[in-house]
Amino acid sequence: MIHCTSEHTNYSIAGYAAAVLLVGLIESDTELASAFCEKWIRTVIQQWAGNGTASKQALLAICRRLDPKQTLDLLRETILYEATTGQGALLATEGV
Does any domain span residue 3? Predict the structure, then answer.
């Protein structure tokens, strides 16, 4: 089972910010896409899950295209976690 957490680390904050800045390059660069899949899909989905900004939606769409199974599994777990803790992940998934 995937463990969801609302804790933010310096690495998750920096990684998320970097992903936002690189949103237009992630899919076109094989190395970057591979690193994103391996290291950052979990961060994009689990950190700031209720953030419904355009950048969050763009990153979620990239996650879905690069690794649909991992993305959907993590979204399900995050939504379940947040539903039981009174938070809301659904806002960020609109249009994804």
Answer: no
Per the structure, the count of domains in the chain is 1
Please report, for residues 14, 16, 17, 47, 66, the alpha-carbon distance to residue 10 in angstroms, rounded to integers and kept in the order given. Answer: 6, 10, 11, 12, 25
pTM over 0.90: no
Residue 23: which domain range? 10-93
Q: Would you say residue 34 lies in a domain?
A: yes
Over 70: is that where the pLDDT of 92 sits?
A: no
**Does 4 fall in a domain?**
no
User: Residue 32: is it exposed, middle or buried by C-beta count within 10 angstroms (0-12/13-18/19+)?
Assistant: middle
- Residue 86: closest CA among 56, 52, 50: 50
Q: Which two tokens stand for residue 61?
A: 């769409």
pLDDT at 76 over 80: yes
Residue 9 DSSP SS3 = coil
Please report whether residue 33 resides in a domain.
yes
* pLDDT score, position 46: 77
